[in-house]
Design brief:
The chain is α+β, with helices and mostly antiparallel strands and about 190 residues long. It is about 30% helix and about 20% strand. This is DUF3558 domain-containing protein. Keywords: Signal. It comes from Micromonospora chaiyaphumensis.
Length: about 190
């Protein structure tokens, strides 16, 4: 049986056999096939970590750990229940998981993202700068270590950093004016222990 060889590379390398070339592809193929096995059914969250370490340990419902949280900061849990949010917003809101609350119609929503105090301080200036570009009005607050709220006619955002953690609140389709969003965001922030 004739042996097939690949043509030599221009660099003067020795010719490789077809079998050797196929063997080089095999590890890549196995990696592609086995890679998703280390993820959950959503395909994005590791379910097993290094030797005996559960990668999901310590996770809560607010999302994955960030580098600052892994470096020793503590991420607080979601500060609200659906009943509290409904009360604070003055309209029925449903818990949609991961500290996301919606009106059930796909219109009004409140999202709260939590992180450690350390992570919040690391991103505060950038968030504040971006808020200045996205919202009609940005107001610095005297609450916690650092805080601000930002609003426009259809949305609002507030950030609170305290010794208990960092909270970013994003509010959408709750009102129709800047002043209304500011009042609502202040009520929400006041309900978070600083």
């Amino acid at each position: 049986m004739a042996r097939h060889t690949l043509p030599p590379a221009r660099t003067g390398a020795r010719p490789r056999t077809v079998r050797a070339a196929r063997l080089g592809v095999l590890p890549l193929l196995l990696l592609a096939l086995l890679g998703p096995a280390a993820c959950d059914d959503a395909g994005d969250t590791p379910t097993a970590g290094p030797a005996g370490v559960d990668a999901g340990a310590g996770d809560d419902t607010t999302g994955g750990d960030d580098a600052a949280d892994l470096a020793g900061g503590v991420r607080p849990p979601c500060p609200f229940t659906a009943a509290q949010v409904s009360d604070l917003l003055g309209q029925p809101m449903k818990d949609q998981g991961n500290c996301l609350f919606g009106d059930g119609k796909g219109v009004a929503s409140l999202t709260v993202t939590t992180s450690s105090t350390m992570a919040g301080k690391a991103t505060f200036d950038y968030q504040h700068e971006q808020a200045g570009k996205q919202y009609e009005r940005v107001v610095d607050l005297d609450r916690g270590d650092q805080s601000y709220l930002a609003a426009k006619d259809v949305a609002g955002e507030a950030v609170l950093i305290s010794g208990k953690g960092s909270y970013t609140l994003t509010l959408s389709s709750i009102g129709t004016d800047v002043a209304g969003y500011e009042q609502t965001l202040r009520r929400l922030l006041d309900a978070i222990p600083a």
